[in-house]
Design brief:
Elements: E1 2-8, H1 16-29, E2 34-40, H2 52-55, E3 59-60, E4 66-67, H3 70-77, E5 87-89, H4 90-103, H5 113-127, E6 136-141, H6 151-164, E7 169-176, E8 179-180, E9 185-186, H7 189-201, E10 207-212, H8 218-228, E11 235-239, H9 248-254, H10 257-264, H11 275-285, E12 289-297, H12 307-319, E13 322-330, E14 347-350, H13 359-371, E15 376-379, H14 381-393, E16 400-402, E17 411-416, E18 431-439, H15 444-449, E19 453-460, E20 462-464, H16 469-473, E21 477-482, E22 489-494, E23 500-503, H17 518-533
Parallel strand pairs: 1-6, 1-7, 2-5, 2-6, 7-10, 10-11, 12-13, 12-14, 14-15, 15-23, 16-17
Antiparallel strand pairs: 3-4, 8-9, 17-20, 18-19, 18-21, 21-22, 22-23
Helix pairs in contact: 1-3, 1-9, 4-5, 5-6, 12-17, 13-14
The structure holds glutamine.
């Protein structure tokens, strides 16, 4: 079993997760079995309770774990299917240690960071060390070297290397090489200092991944090599990608990273097969056509808040040889009227969300899409607002609402799940993870999935209120998927609309570059069909009103 530890230096947001995931892609292309895990030094037990403003999206796994969005990169870039064992936070570590202490497991000993905290961390790496399943475990340490919270994790790695032998371990440090315009120079000093910090803790990186805007010349490489004690060919340039994050594995391969890693770890593998990946990247970079999709949400300026959704749109679009021009619309700006904001789009997507802010704007967006026959995809809250809209404006239930937004609504078309009554804690208390959905034969949903049973990932507390089913069905609101016992609505569609589909779950967590999710794929196909009919499409007057959303799809995670 081989181990790769990925640490970060100088600043956060360098794209460590993406780098780790890209290495995973390359090693899998060499027929190695890879698993990735993330250690997050913060004290939250999981990111489930963190605001998207702070931490981007919460990525949900099959087993219902609410995890860091880097696990999304891992699942999209490799074949790994992850579980709650693949994301460890300091909050979890201390929770475990304190519970053990209260139980008396430490038998009168003083409980300390070394060995008790570090033991828990090392065990987490060992848990994944199942040689029958994996050849390589890649562990990413969140945060930046030098953070106080990160110390126990780095200390645990130091001990771990001693236990499994240095020949089986590789430390990879992702660092920033800033370009100083005034001096026309790339600066290596921050990296030297961050590697010195690692050495203080007893860790020596063997590979430096250098995030940079400009190419590293020979002198810079030599300097980094000398000051950081890393052989020159292990100074790897990772320049900002031009078009899409999916280029990262290819640029790292061109820099020789995968060969280097295999040499350092004494792994014999065939040459990597990157054909399918390259093809996907080509389709993302130079598509034959483009389609404009509105995403109507709450965190439009936080590029990571809907990460999996933007990625899923990219995957689906690529499969149709098409590029996405996302139009990111703040739902609050629609509250007093749509005002032409949706006139130039070929599809409307309303993502998940919590709380009442912006809800009336989302309802207006759903109404506009329904009335103008624009393809609509509603995800979780996006399904709930579409339901409220239909109840109010088609069925005449004028005060229809969700009890999330109006506790005393006379017509709760969306209401709290039975199991949620009495739930007090906010953390890990929703309906979470994979649940099966039975699809009603003869519906659009059946055509989309080509199946009558699917499993999808959930994260919600509220549900469609079945009391309104018949009344709404009579007007064309079709429940096309339910839980196997028929009690919970999972998928809905409109009878008299070319494509109006919404689901109570989150399909965005199961889309991959060469395996787009059927709901996203069919949504893009419907948007293209809508566009080619020229319906409601007037040329965009203003390209991307909010900053440069094209970059949303081309950003470093
Ligand atoms: N707030 C809604 C609920 O809890 C929707 C959740 C979501 O979109 N993930 O049911």
């Amino acid at each position: 079993m081989k181990y790769i530890f990925v640490t970060g230096g100088v600043i956060s947001s360098l794209g460590k997760g993406l780098t780790a995931a890209s290495l995973g892609t390359l090693l899998e292309a060499r027929k190695l079995r890879v698993v990735l895990q993330k250690f997050d030094p913060y004290l939250n037990v999981d990111p489930g309770t963190m605001s998207p403003f702070q931490h981007g999206e919460v990525y949900v796994l099959n087993d219902g774990a609410e995890t860091d969005l880097d696990l999304g990169h891992y699942e999209r870039f490799t074949n790994c299917v992850l579980t709650r064992h693949n994301n460890l936070t300091s909050g979890q570590v201390y929770e475990t240690v304190i519970l053990k202490e209260r139980r008396g497991d430490y038998l009168g000993k003083t409980v300390q960071v070394i060995p008790h905290v570090t033991d828990i961390i090392k065990n987490r790496i060992r848990e994944l060390s199942d040689a029958s399943k994996y050849d390589v475990v890649i562990t990413e340490i969140g945060g930046t070297t030098g953070d106080i919270e990160g110390l126990p994790f780095l200390e645990a790695i130091r001990q771990f290397i001693l236990e499994v032998g240095p020949q089986n371990v590789l430390n990879m440090h992702v660092t920033l090489i800033p370009y100083i315009k005034a001096a026309h120079e790339l600066k290596t000093k921050p990296t030297q200092q961050s590697v010195a910090k690692l050495r203080e803790i007893g860790l020596q990186p063997q590979v430096l991944i250098c995030r940079t805007e400009k190419p590293l010349d020979r002198d810079v490489r030599r300097k980094l090599s000398m000051f950081c004690s890393v052989v020159e060919k292990a100074v790897i340039e990772e320049r900002d990608v031009e078009h899409t994050i999916y280029e990262v594995p290819l640029t790292l391969h061109a820099e020789g990273l995968d060969q280097l890693v295999c040499d350092l770890l004494h792994l014999e593998t065939p040459k990597p097969d990157l054909k399918a990946w390259r093809k996907f990247v080509e389709r993302v970079v130079s598509p034959r056509k483009r389609v404009r999709i509105a995403v109507v949400g709450k965190y439009m300026d936080v590029r990571d808040a809907y990460k999996s959704i933007y990625e899923s749109l990219t995957h689906a679009a690529a499969s149709e040889d098409c590029g996405i021009d996302p139009k990111l619309i703040d739902a609050e700006s629609l509250e007093h009227g749509v005002d032409g904001q949706l006139r130039d789009v070929a599809g409307v997507l309303v993502p998940g969300g919590f709380g009442g802010r912006g809800v009336e704007g989302k309802i207006k967006a759903a109404r506009y899409a329904r009335e103008h026959k624009i393809p609509y995809l509603g995800l979780c809250l996006g399904m709930q607002v579409a339901t409220i809209e239909f109840a109010r404006n088609v069925c005449g239930i004028k005060d229809a609402n969700s009890t999330e937004f109006d506790k005393n609504t006379p017509d709760p078309v969306i209401s709290l799940l039975e199991e949620q009554h009495g739930v007090q804690n906010k953390g890990a208390s929703m309906r979470l993870g994979t649940w099966p959905t039975k699809i009603v034969p003869g519906t659009l949903a059946e055509k989309i999935y080509g199946d009558t049973e699917v499993t999808e990932r959930h994260r919600h507390r509220y549900e469609f209120n079945m009391k309104y089913r018949d009344r709404m069905n009579a007007k064309g609101f079709v429940i096309s998927g339910t839980s196997p016992d028929g009690a919970l609505a999972e998928l809905v569609e409109l009878r008299d609309h070319p494509y109006f589909v919404s689901c109570q779950y989150h399909p965005e967590f199961q889309s991959k570059p060469n395996k787009p999710h059927p709901l996203f794929k069919s949504f893009i196909a419907a948007a293209l069909a809508h566009q080619s009919r020229g319906e409601q499409l007037t040329p965009a007057i203003e390209e991307f009103p909010r900053g440069l959303p094209a970059e949303e799809l081309a950003l470093q995670g």
